[in-house]
């Protein structure tokens, strides 16, 4: 599963580091056709560095810089003055360091950027992925030997993630990885209480900058109102494709199944016929289905709806709504009962059969409970 990462790195630790005892050489290589018009290298304290050599050959540009600080940054801008992306690096023990960007996308895709002799967030992220992959393989061996059950996987992986954070909590990038990756891993069972308790005991004492602490704590606070099973449905305001306004209050007292999908998502398309049948079976009994499309083009969404004869309301590419419901990745299904409680979230049901039998049973139970109250 591909995870697209947006790194908003905190720089509160920038001024902790002092000048290096020796100067290192940085070789920065990128394609001549890279989409960025501005590429700047800044040393500790924000000092702009000028390239000491510039070479172009075989469609590539290579710049050489002298780096005299423990931390430096590379700014990438979409125009002659703008700075749209920032990558921070820590120098290693090597006197010659290199960074190669195969294309513009390597700024956002860990693993595509080629680096040598230095350290950055992508290195920590790759170490995290390797750690998690090893934990997953070990868990599979425990299941095979009968020591673990498959439905214990997510709790096991969460414990492994916490072990990785504890093992690397002195790394200045760890607050970023914890806040942006660990707290947001797809299918993770982490809750506000678990995250807050771990942070206060294992990570907060190792963060010196108050601004960094505030930032991490703001990310943890988001979990308070997350769409976890048993939680109240988070507050939201949106509108459907035909312009009708919709909010938590307007859906009060209704059993609502949220379907997060896109026409380019093959697993989503496979689910649509089953969900259509589910709607045919239960909508007249009080179930309301709302689709939320992540399509880039509403025309493609409408074509898919027409193909499968989908008539339920659709919300088109509402990024705030996706953030509110913590959607990553799709397909995703969230069922909110008439009392406003989340009683089914597909992210936390990965170990169950994927034939919709569990969801159907829950819907039937909630519809019956509402009819008895009425």
Task: Explain the overall architecture.
This protein is α+β, with helices and mostly antiparallel strands and 374 residues long. Helices cover 32% and strands 25% of the residues. The protein has 9 helices and 17 strands. It has helices spanning 121-144, 153-167, 174-180, 192-203, 210-221, 266-282, 298-307, 319-324, 357-373; strands at residues 19-31, 38-42, 48-49, 53-57, 60-69, 71-77, 85-91, 96-100, 114-116, 118-120, 237-239, 245-247, 255-261, 287-293, 314-316, 332-336, 342-345. Helix 1 (121-144) runs antiparallel to helix 2 (153-167) and helix 3 (174-180) packs parallel to helix 5 (210-221). The protein starts with 18 loop residues before the first strand and ends with a helix. The model is unreliable at 1-20 and 79-83 (pLDDT under 50).
Q: Could you provide a short overview of the structure?
A:
This protein is an alpha+beta fold and 374 residues long. It is 32% helix and 25% strand. The strands form four sheets. The protein has a five-stranded mixed sheet, with no helix packed on it.
């Amino acid at each position: 599963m591909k995870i697209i990462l947006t790194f908003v790195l905190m720089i509160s630790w920038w001024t902790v580091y002092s000048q290096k005892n020796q100067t290192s050489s940085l070789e920065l290589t990128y394609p001549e056709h890279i989409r960025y018009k501005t590429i700047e290298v800044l040393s500790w304290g924000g000092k702009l560095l000028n390239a000491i050599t510039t070479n172009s050959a075989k469609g590539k540009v290579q710049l050489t810089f002298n780096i005299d600080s423990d931390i430096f940054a590379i700014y990438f801008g979409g125009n002659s003055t703008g700075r749209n992306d920032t990558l921070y690096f820590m120098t290693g023990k090597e006197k010659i360091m290199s960074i190669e960007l195969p294309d513009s996308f390597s700024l956002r895709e860990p693993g595509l950027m080629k680096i040598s002799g230095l350290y950055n967030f992508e290195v920590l992220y790759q170490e995290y992925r390797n750690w998690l992959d090893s934990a997953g393989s070990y868990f599979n061996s425990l299941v095979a030997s009968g020591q673990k059950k498959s439905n214990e996987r997510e709790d096991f992986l969460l414990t492994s993630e916490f072990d990785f954070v504890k093992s690397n909590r002195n790394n200045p990038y760890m607050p970023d990885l914890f806040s942006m990756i660990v707290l947001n891993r797809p299918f993770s069972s982490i809750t506000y209480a678990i995250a807050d308790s771990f942070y206060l005991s294992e990570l907060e004492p190792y963060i010196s900058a108050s601004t960094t602490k505030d930032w991490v704590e703001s990310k943890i606070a988001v979990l308070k109102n997350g769409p976890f099973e048993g939680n109240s449905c988070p507050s939201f305001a949106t509108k459907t494709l035909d312009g009708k306004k919709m909010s938590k209050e307007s859906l009060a007292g209704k059993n609502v199944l949220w379907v997060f999908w896109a026409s380019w998502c093959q697993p989503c398309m496979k689910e649509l016929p089953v969900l259509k049948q589910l709607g045919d079976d239960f909508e007249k009994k009080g179930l309301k289905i709302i689709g939320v499309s992540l399509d880039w083009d509403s025309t493609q969404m409408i074509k898919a709806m027409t193909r499968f004869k989908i008539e339920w309301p659709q919300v088109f590419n509402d990024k705030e709504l996706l953030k509110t419901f913590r959607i990553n990745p799709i397909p995703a299904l969230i069922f909110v009962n008439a009392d406003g409680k989340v009683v089914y979230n597909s992210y936390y049901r990965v170990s169950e059969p994927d034939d919709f039998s569990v969801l159907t049973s829950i819907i039937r139970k909630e519809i019956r409970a509402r009819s008895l109250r009425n």
